[in-house]
Amino acid sequence: MTQALSVLDKKLGGLNPRTAIVLGSGLGSLSGELRDPVRVSYADLEGFPHSGVSGHAAEVVAGHMGETPVIMLSGRAHYYEKGDASAMRLPLETLHGLGVQKLILTNAAGSLRKEMPPGSVMRISDHINYAGANPLIGEPGDRRFVGLTNAYDVEMADQMDAAAREVGIDLFSGVYMWFSGPSFETPAEIKMAGMMGADAVGMSTVPEVILARFLGLRVAAASVVTNFAAGMSGDEISHEETKQMAPLGGERLASILRHMLSG
What we know:
By secondary structure, the protein is of the alpha/beta class. Helix content is 30%, strand content 25%. α3 (89-97) runs parallel beside α6 (206-215). The two termini are 33 Å apart. The mean pLDDT is 92.
């Protein structure tokens, strides 16, 4: 048992969450809604990343959402910080060690669809690993050959869609393309992404999906749209814009997740 798993196991006491959420930009406040929360800083968990991205916290929060025990990772490490696609491996392995079976991933993304403006929410139906990196490079044995035909769990997707309908929020569905970052995409790259079938672009999540499937976790994912992708509006894109716009779609996604998990 790793130090991180041991610490969290003791802190959680009798709480046995089977669902985990990785909170992306705009979703940080969701952890404050948990009943009787247990909070543990990443700094107290050996091997957990210390995200260097403004707007991202760095703590594990566990508690109940409605009647459902949930554990949340408030903050993630990104590939572009150190060039390590497996940066989130230990946190996800720790969740798996705690008995988590379902993982919900969230992120901020740029939209390639005119009808999906900033403030929208898109459930990720599939992804394109344009960055080309993989968190399982160097993993020995045949387990590394992870099938991704069903990377995104159909039952969890249906539950997310149903929750969105019940709370009256339009939930788009589409393909997420992972760029390495940290620079934003060029208009030419966005044109290419659209031709390849992408509906949104971003700099995270895909390595976590691969790791989660490697560990046998069921996965659902959603993007909060913070901007139109490069070349679509004529405006330059910035991280400041991402931080400003994320709470708009973040509250919509939070409402969906709240309803999805509180039943």
